[in-house]
Amino acid sequence: MKAALAQIAPRLADVPANLALHAETVHRAAAAGAGLVVFPELSLSGYLLMEAAPEVAITLDGPEMTRLRELSREAALAVGFVEEAPGGRFFNSAAFLDGGELLHVHRKVYLPSHGLFDETRHFAAGDRVRCFDTRFGRVGLLVCRDFWHLGPAYLLGCQDVDVMCVLSASPGRGAESGGGRFESVTSVALLGDTYARSFGCHVLHTNRAGVEEGVTFAGGSEAYGPSGERLARGADEDPDLVLVDVDADARRAARLRMPFLKEERPHLILRELQRVLAERAAPRY
Amino acid sequence: MSSPSVPHLDTELATRVLVRFLRDEAARAGFTRLVLGLSGGIDSAVAAFLAAHAVGPENVVALALPWRGSNPQSLEHGRLVASAAGIALGVADLTAAADGLLAVLPAPTPHRTGNVLARLRMVTLWDRSLAERALVVGTSNKTELLLGYGTLHGDLASALNPLGDLWKCQVRALARHLGVPEPVISKPPSADLWEGQTDEGELGFTYDQADAVLSRLVDARETPNALVAAGFHRELVDAIVRRVVQNQYKRRGPLIAKLSRRTVGWEFRYPRDWAT
What we know:
The complex is a heterodimer of chains A (285) and B (276).
Chain A: E1 2-7, H1 15-31, E2 36-38, H2 63-71, E3 76-85, E4 89-98, E5 101-107, H3 119-122, E6 131-134, E7 137-143, H4 145-148, H5 150-158, E8 163-168, H6 183-199, E9 202-207, E10 211-212, E11 215-216, E12 222-224, E13 230-233, E14 240-245, H7 248-257, H8 260-263, H9 266-281
Parallel strand pairs in A: 1-2, 2-3, 7-8, 8-9
Antiparallel strand pairs in A: 1-14, 3-4, 4-5, 6-7, 9-12, 10-11, 12-13
Chain B: H1 11-28, E1 33-37, H2 42-55, E2 60-64, H3 72-85, E3 89-91, H4 95-104, H5 110-132, E4 134-136, H6 142-147, H7 168-178, H8 182-186, H9 199-203, H10 207-219, H11 224-229, H12 234-246
Parallel strand pairs in B: 1-2, 1-4, 2-3
């Protein structure tokens, strides 16, 4: 299977324009042989939305989702959007669509709210991390900060994830150190390598490009193979369409060589975690 | 401290990011041209080089804005920069305008005269902005912004500021990387408002000292006490902290008296790049 990392630069708070950009990108990726196209976080809306977040929200049964379902007949796609859910809640969500169907929605679990991030102001946090079956194997979706915490990746690993799709809108931060890239880009690369080799899975990480509000999104989308090998890398900061082969046989070989999943002990982790939480809940003073 | 260590900069990355910033953000606002004042100093020189890379030198409107009190060397250096960046330089002498205004202001001091000049330059650049369909590029660096070493509604007024997250020493490194002429880099920084004026003379400390202290306070979040323990003079650290706090008003818009449930700046907070 060939996948495409769609490193786009969406317009800010302009869903119709971004839907058109998605369509054009899917056409291009499908023409190049891609069966799956992974877009960045909030690809339909742009990232630094502030109070515009509810105004660009879409619902899972709305016309935008209908259009995305149509597009998914050309290639499966993972897209990011503001989801309006019942109860006046808004989520920073990612959807996976294939063959005209909406297969899964992941609502961002970890909402950064520090520094230039202000996500808890606008979004409710998701409360589940689930794998789902596709024609490409078991897929798990993570949105940006979900990837920086070890828990979500571990939970996907315990569900036998084959292809971990990560949708990011990571602002470039730290230009002091040298090497031609933001320091924030270097950190995230280490995580892709680690998760891929720990779970013998593919990691498809799309980070967006472009500038919003003076903030430059660093691009540099990356795909990792099941032994932690980097398969492809997108341009720094520029929009790009990165094609990568996602080979199921490579996963089988990697898991035979390093059978981490066979030897994983989730019950031990659960038991110890429960003990830690119980101890933490006990009053200390 | 005789030679404080100052923050580094990946000049390759910074150039790429700042050029894209100018080009993309101008385009979002519907502009393909940029306008800026060339003072003959290092900050506007770096901004001019970046602007030329971003939109092409033919799309940069550069203006020298001297008056009778200006050091003639400033205009010479402005020409040097424009020529090195491949930009045409216009000159608008502000003497008549400044004298006209100063004549009706009671007993102008050098400080107030400096503000008048900075604001006349702002008026001129924003007029050229509309006339030439070119967005105004600011040249205030991070050190100046934090110290409040700039005139509100004067040189602090711009549409896009590519230098605002660069310490002065980083501006110097970037100037070398971009090929800014050496005399512009090596001369003592000056607002050139009166003869013999230098920034460092007026501030009472050097930019290297300010950069070393500010980068540790702001970027590394160290405390003033930790800096003193590390060998910085208490007077220097205190003077810098005082300036940062006192000048916060220059870094924010005017305060709005809140009445409604949805007030501009509080509940009504939208990105400037809204729908672009």
